[in-house]
Structure formats: C-alpha cells, structure tokens
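My convention is simple: the sequence line spells out the residues, with the fold written below as integer tokens. I include a record here:
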Amino acid sequence: MASQISKLALRIVLVALLLLALFYVGRPLYWKISATVHDIRHNKQTVFHRLCLRLRNLWGGLVMNLTLESMEIEVSKLQGD
C-alpha cells in the first residue's frame, strides 16, 4: 500500500502537469480567440464606416441636387422665365 506522502506527491505532480497542459493549450487558444474577436470588431467598424460614407455621399448628392435645382428655379424667376 502506498504511503500518504507518495499519494500527496503524485497528486501534486498531476496537478502541476494539468496546469502546464492548460497553460500550453489555453494560452495560444486565448490569443487566437482574442485576435479573431478584434478582427471581427475591426471589420464591423470598417463596414459601418463605409456604409456611413456611402449614405453621406448619397445624402450629400441629393442635397446638392436639390440646392442646385432650387437655385435654378430662383434664377429663372428673377429672369422672368
């Protein structure tokens, strides 16, 4: 029968091996997941930024067209057309 000291030593060694395995498996996994989340957030911001630019350009174009049309109408009224 094994002594109490050898059982304790075996448990300590097993816990140390388990922690070592978790460290070597978990650390790269953590960095991979972290990088993936960062990329997803960056892509979401990029897509949102592009969408905002397109909407701004579209809206700005509409406002510019309406402004030019209203200016043309006012000029034609002044000219008596």
Residues 47 and 53 are 10 Å apart (CA to CA). DSSP finds one helix and no strands in the chain.
